[in-house]
Amino acid sequence: MPKPLYTTTRNLHLYAGLFLSPFVLLFAVSVFFLVHAPRTAANPTVETRSAAGLPVSPAL
Fold it and tell me: Distance from CA of residue 33 to its chain's centroid?
């Protein structure tokens, strides 16, 4: 690989990684907080809802 192409590719990879890494870290932190949301003492149970007796088309 010619030296100028190698240098350009290396710098492009470096700066692209430096630019994108804060977004990747922000995504990782937000996923952590969404998945591991704290359960509050005021509402310890999870409310489930269901639907029954709904008309369904026979062609479905």
Answer: 11
For the whole model, what pTM was predicted?
Answer: 0.51
Distances (CA, A) of 47 to 14, 38, 43, 44, 50: 48, 16, 9, 10, 10
47 against 26, higher pLDDT: 26
Q: Please provide the DSSP assignment of 2-51 as one string.
A: -HHHHHHHHHHHHHHHHHHHHHHHHHHHHHHHHHTPPPPSSS-SPP----
pLDDT of residue 42: 63
Burial of 43 (0-12, 13-18, 19+ CB in 10 A): exposed
Taking the domains of the chain in order of start, what are their residue ranges?
1-37
Angle (CA) 46-51-52 rounded to 5° is 135
